[in-house]
Every structure is written in C-alpha cells, then in structure tokens.
Amino acid sequence: MAALRGGHSCLIAEMRILASFEWSFIWDNRDQLWEGFKNTIKTAAIGVAGSFLIGLVLGAVRAHRIPVLNQIAWAYVEVIRNTPILVQIFLLYYGTPELGLHFETFTVAWLSITIWGGAFNTENFRAGFEAVPTRLREAGYALGFTRLKTFLNVTLPIGGRIALPSSINTYISVLKNTSLMLVIGYPELTSVASNIQAITFRTFEMFSVLAAVYLVIVWTLSALIRLLEARLALPEAL
Amino acid sequence: MALALLPDWFRPVAEYMLREGLPETLRLAAIAVTASTVVGVLLGTLMTVRFRPVQALIRLYIEVWRGLPILVMVLFIYWLPDYHFGPFHLRTEAYKSAAIALSLWGSAQVAEATRGALQSIPKEQHEAASALGFGWVGRNAFVIMPQALRRLVPPMVGLLVNIIQNTTIAFVIGVNEFLQAGNRQFENLTTQTGDGHPFMIFGFVLLVFFVISFPLTRLAAFLERRSI
Fold it and tell me: A176, A116 in Cβ contact below 8 A?
C-alpha cells in the first residue's frame, strides 16, 4: 500500500483501490467504530444539554439586561464566538494544568463543546426572547404575575418557540465539533476512523462510515428544523 | 510598557508565531474565501434557474459539504491516494487539502446565501425590468444581481470570520498555520526548558484570533443593520 503513495502506481492501481471497496472491512472493525460512535453520541448529548441550559439562562439574562450578569454574558459570548473552537480546546486541555486543574480527555471533550455551544445558544435565545413583544409581557404584569412568572409563562413559551430552529442549528454544530476531539486523542468516531485509516490506508471505507453517520444525523436534525418551522409557526404576526 | 512586563521567553515565541504562522493562516483563508465566493455565487445563481436536475445536484452539493464536519473533509482529501492519469499527477498535500476542504464548505455556504439573496428580490423587480425592455441577461445583470449582491455582503463578512477560524483545522494535518506555530513553540519550550507555558502561548493564539475576528463580526452586524 505504501508503494501507492510512492509514484509507481498508475491508473490500474487506482482502479483497484476503488474496485476493492470492501464492506467486510467496515464490518471487521465494527466494535471499534461502534465504541467511537457511542463516544460521539455521549459527548454530543452532554454538549447539547449543557448548551441548552447555558443558552436558556444567559439568553434570559441578556434579554432582560440584568446588570453585571448581562455584561459578563456579553463578554463570554463575544470571546467564544470570535475565537476558533480548536484553540479553546487547546487552552482547556494544555493550559488548565498550569492553573492547577487537571481534566481528563472526556471532560475536555464535553466541556469545550458545551462552552462553545452555550455561547451560540445564548445569542439564539436572546434573539428569541427579545422578539416577544413588550405588550405581551406588560399584559403578564397587569395580570399580577411577578417578573419570573411572566418570564416562565409568557416570554419563555413564545420566545423559546422562536429560538428553537436556530438553536437546533447550534446543536448540529455541537455534534459536528465533537470530531475535533481527535486532537486531544479522545476516541470518538472521527478519531477512531482516522486511526484505522492510518494503519490500513482504507480511505474510502473509513470515509464512507464517517460520511454516513454524520450526514444521517445532521440531515435528520435539519429535517426536524423544517418540520418545526412549519408546525410551530406562530399563528399570526405578533 | 506592557511588553516590559512580559517574560523573556515570550518575545521570540510571539515573533515566530506572527512571522511564520499568521501569514499562512491568512493566506489559507484568502484562498478559501476567494474560491468559495466564485464557486458559491455561481452555484447559487444556477439554483434560481428552474431546471430540476441541476437544482437537485446543487442541493446535494450544498447539503453534503454543509453536513460533514470540516475536519472529516480535510482528512478525507488528505488521505486520498496519489492519482496518475497520463500527464496528470494529482496529489493532495496538506496545504492543498485544507484549502480544498475549506473551499468546498465555504462554497456551499455562499451558494445557499446567494440563492436566498436572489430569491429575496421581489417579483415586481423582475416584472418592472421586463417592462422596461430588459432581456433575461440584462434583467439579471443590471437589476436583480446588483440588489442581491448588496444583500450578500453581511453574510460574506460572517463567512470570512468563520473561514479564518476554521483554518485552524489544518493544524490536524500539519499545516504550519497560527495554532500549529504556537504548538511548535510550546513543544520546543517544553523540551528545552521543561516548561512550555501552554496557558500563555495558547492564550496568545486566542487573543490574536479575537483581535482579527471581533472587528469583522461588528462590521457584519453593522452592515446587516444598515442594509434593509
């Protein structure tokens, strides 16, 4: 196989690679790939849940302009959105031991995508909550609801509905970003497939696995967005 | 003043990163943005032409490149075996692989944005242009496109920011972009002195990316507010 990179090969060798696509090769490595898939899903699930919570809380803080917390949330969002997530992962993985914190690779994996997704989701939810007309909130106050009750009963159901499609887009990105954990050696799907490819040079088989898994999940979620946009569309202009 | 407060080891490290790594990052971003814009605007425009097979093909192109993690695309293109075909000898080195993967991803984004911008131009504009005697070409070139392209500017600035940040993915296949340059200095310092100062080095990488991206993000937001 190494000779193929060398230069002696010609079209025939090339065709042999394409023709020699072997499903059995994927089947033979199913245990490792399955482990990788589970790690990807596990990391993404924590990342999605975490970024949902961060987005919800900080989005509310930003929309209601709660002093001090609002400015802190703003700074957090701007720093995360304006720097590459790969650098954030490096800082979290290599930088924190200098501060006396020692994280496992799995901790860095879910923590970094949670922090990243949380920042993007804060913006999604802030925009959603701010899209709720003031008069609806005033109606809540007029009915004697407290600020918290008004938020929970008026702003959250309507604003959350507006924010839902864009927040699912963020979850899709969170899932795709789990692939970056390859750099810290966390055995998620991309990292596992990359290791198998490095040993066997089975490029097309490994790429097919990655493409199939990611595209199925991403396309399903995209379809869900379109469905929700149709279903949850507010009945009339607010 | 501020420089005097920094430790001695920092200056050569930062100089290496800014001299070797940063130009590579910016060059990669410039290539990817240019290619994305050219291919993306073309595909996005083609998508507004009502011919189902072409629309379906471009839709597939967009959904595949947007659906895959960029890292997976970078790796796949980098993994591709050499290809010999008569006088052609195709080989994807690290730098080329990263540029191609970023361009594929970027062109999908631009195509979708272009399609959206073109379709957001009201039908009356087409009709008014026809009434003035413009043909298909003139209608699109002089009436529709100028308006659509203006709407395309804010998302394009956003794309630029995204691509600059995503160039760091080229780190994985060994391209000496800014993060890689920082990482090499970190590893050198670790072997030479035992202390690699990872927090400061990667903090510096973060800071430089922020200094580049933040004004651009503000610009995109400003343009978006202005262009209604």
Answer: no
**Which tens digits make up the pLDDT trace of A33-46?**
999 999 999 999 99
For chain B, the C-alpha Rg in angstroms (whole number) is 22
Give tens-digit pLDDT for A127-154: 999 999 999 999 999 999 999 999 999 9
Residues of chain A with Cβ-Cβ distance to B206 below 8 Å are 79, 83, 87-88, 91
Residue indicated by tokens 């990655």: A210
Strand partners, B83: B90
How many angstroms separate the CA atoms of B17 and B19, rounded? 6
ipTM of the complex: 0.90
Domain spans of chain B?
A: 9-226
B79:A11 CB<8 A: no
Interface test with A, best of B22, B65, B71 (most A CBs within 10 A): B71
- Whether A5 has a pLDDT exceeding 60, the answer reads no
Rg value, chain A, Cα: 23
Give the three-class secondary structure for A83: coil
* HSE (side-chain half, CA atoms, 13 Å) at A200: 19
Look-up of token digits 């913006």 = A123
- Of A77, A79, A44, the closest CA to residue A177 belongs to A44
Contact B213 A95 (CB under 8 A): no
Task: Say whether B198 and A97 touch across the interface (CB within 8 A).
Answer: yes
Residue spans of alpha helices (H) in A69-202: 69-81, 85-90, 105-130, 134-142, 147-150, 156-177, 189-200
Is B9-226 CATH 3.90.1150.10? Answer: no
Q: Residue A78: is its pLDDT beyond 50?
A: yes
CB A112 within 8 A of CB A148: no
Report the alpha-carbon distance of residue A123 to residue A78 in Å, rounded. 10
Q: Does A80 touch chain B (CB under 8 A)?
A: no
Q: DSSP label at A151? A: I
Q: How far is A175 from A161, CA to CA, in rounded Å?
A: 22
Alpha carbons A111 and A43: distance in angstroms, whole number: 9
Question: A50-187 maps to which CATH number?
Answer: 1.10.3720.10
User: Which residues does A136 contact at the CB level (< 8 Å), separation at least 6?
Assistant: A154, A155, A158, A238
**CB < 8 Å from A in window 65-84 of B:** 67-72, 75-76, 79-84
B82 with A9: Cβ contact below 8 A: yes
| A7 vs B contacts (CB less than 8 Å) | 82, 84
- pLDDT value of residue A220: 95
